[in-house]
Write a structure and sequence with these properties.
The complex is a heterodimer of chains A (about 375) and B (about 270).
Chain A (H helix, E strand, L loop, with lengths): L1 H15 L2 H21 L2 H4 L10 E6 L5 H5 L6 E5 L5 H9 L5 E5 L12 E6 L4 H20 L4 E6 L3 H26 L2 H4 L1 H6 L2 H5 L5 H35 L12 H28 L3 H24 L13 H11 L5 H27 L1 H5 L2
Parallel strand pairs in A: 1-2, 1-3, 4-5
Antiparallel strand pairs in A: 3-4
Helix pairs in contact in A: 1-11, 2-7, 2-11, 7-11, 7-12, 7-13, 7-14, 11-12, 11-15, 12-13, 12-14, 12-15, 13-14, 14-15
Chain B lengths: L12 E13 L2 H7 L5 E13 L3 E5 L6 H8 L7 E6 L2 E2 L4 H7 E4 L11 H11 L4 H15 L14 H12 L6 E5 L7 H16 L3 E6 L2 H7 L2 E6 L2 E7 H4 L5 H16 L1
Parallel strand pairs in B: 3-8, 3-9, 6-7, 7-8
Antiparallel strand pairs in B: 1-2, 1-4, 4-5, 9-10
Helix pairs in contact in B: 4-6, 5-6
Classes of the chains: A alpha/beta (about 375), B alpha/beta (about 270).
The structure holds adenosine-5'-triphosphate and magnesium ion (MG).
Amino acid sequence: MKSFWTIVKKELSRFFHDKRLLMALFLPGILIYAVYSLIGGGLIDSLTAVDEDYSYKLYTLNAPAGFAEELGLDDERWKIVEIEADEAEKIKTKIEEQEADLYLEFTPAFEFSGGEGTGIAVYYNTAKTESSAAYGLIGALISAKQFDSPKFTTLPFDLVKDEDMTAMLFSSIGPMLVLVFLFSGCASIAPESIAGEKERGTFATMLVTPVKRSYIALGKIVSLSILSVLSGFCSFLGLTLSLPKLMGDLGGSGLSAYGFGDYMMLLGVVISSVLLIVAIISVVSTLANSVKEATSMVGPLTLVVVVMGVATMFGGGGEWYWHLIPIYNSALAMSDVFSLSGSALNVLVTIGANLLYATGLSLLLAKMFDSEKIVSGS
Amino acid sequence: MDEVFDLEENAENVLVARDLKKTFKLSRKQKKLEKSVTGLKTAVDGLSFAARRGEIYGLLGPNGAGKTTTLRMLATLIKPDEGDAEVNGYSVLKEPDKARSKLGFLTSELKPDEFFTPNYMFDFFSALHGVSEADREKRKLDLFTRFGIGEFAETKIADLSTGMKQKVSIAISLVHDPEFIIFDEPTNGLDVLTAKAVTDFLLELKQRGKTILLSTHIFSLVEKICDRVGVIIDGKMSLEGNVKELTKEKNLEEVFFDLYAARKGGKE
Ligand SMILES: Nc1ncnc2c1ncn2[C@@H]1O[C@H](COP(=O)(O)OP(=O)(O)OP(=O)(O)O)[C@@H](O)[C@H]1O
Ligand SMILES: [Mg+2]
């Protein structure tokens, strides 16, 4: 066990004394900050898509008779409920809580041909995709009406909660970004640490000592994990710092929306994902005979991670068994935590599955270190 | 072939190799180079020999004879397909960890991480070998002084000269003061001065009762420092014996050429 720590210590000091490797470790974080600060809010628009057969929940107050026909709203897609004046606050809260899509408050005895002093207040919530879509649709129809009789006014109210704003952003793009950062952080160091040692002939020097191969494998994995977590953390920091710019004018209170429990779940998911990613890349790097070869083998894997991350934005995931798929589960679980709807069971399944896979791969790595063909690279 | 030694009766054998055999699968490129039809290359073909305590045993053979492959099997870096070997009584197949703790393997293939200093690497490998701190410091002082490494102890290995790198490699391979030392091509690529420093050191190790197995294709080296020699051709032991006795009438080079001609002549 002592020799295991010796290996970890050596690996770490190797990296902390090499400027080039340190750069590779921290550059992704810096790049993320730079890139996302530049592109700003452009990402948000691309994330709004509503299901084909979704029906919008629209509440109205003082709606003129036949206004739906007047605006040309399709019955199939709009569930319209006229409410009493004293229910107004309750409905607004519902929109805030993302339980209703839209609330139109007409001035008493409103008519589309009405004159001065008449108007419509439109309440919606940008954090809910359907709500902001409904707002877009109704808004366009009402504008068309206003074109005919420009006398009445419209007042839009966005009822989004600050923390939801943050949640929406993080839950949609965050997981993929974090995974990609963790992956690229690890991909920048593991090939050097394993394939590089093979290439330079320093690996075999360890193999002729009495240290168990499994300790060598473990030493590599643990030190790489420590470094990858650091690198991942830097990327995460870069992302967090650029978040205000990413969200543009929409505001939001940043990370303060998340509580201690959320952070703990996130931490568990991140650490277990790192272990898995490190194990995957280590296995790949062990198969390669040079750093160059290892890097070119890891490249396509990065693409897989991106695809998995993106897939969670569209694919399924509510049930626990989705959380058994490696990488995909991490993106899902992070997405759950980010969107403030993390289920402890799913997070635990994710962490458990990741640890299981990482352990399996570590055992495989130890086996590979025992295989002369792989180690001597002929 | 004659039995030159009795493996079972001589208790003082530090190394015993029995019927070692190693066949490599060739890659497509290698296949063309070797003009091999089967795609297989038998590098070591049933090799048996033993090294006695306190002697220097030389494995002599032309390029590609299978010397390095043999040494790598003994150092437990690769596994023999057939046969087995014992280092200080530990089987390289069954107890590779224990065998490794009793041997030191020196070869240009194995390099200390050049990113670190000789001092750091010495401590690192001492820790991996489980050497106590007191022993470590004593040996370090001894070896570093012996090779003049002292003043470079805190210089990155990458910045050292080739000769000094070689000396550092040797020092680091001996952190655990092994009983049995395997040395592949000890003087390859070294200038006469460094080469002499290395051979002197080997003789000194022998004086201290260590057993040394070295491989080389240099006849003079064998004549100079080896007690016994095994001549390997095509992975097989062609001749084995006491160096002094073998070179009574002819020098080793002539002995080898006669042997080689006989073997190759008989084959074709
Ligand atoms: N990993 C390998 N894969 C395929 N063939 C190999 C491998 N290692 C060695 N060989 C082949 O086995 C034969 C013996 O090689 P080896 O390195 O043991 O010879 P050697 O006696 O050390 O030669 P040299 O004096 O050139 O170092 C050679 O033909 C070599 O090409
Ligand atoms: Mg050789």
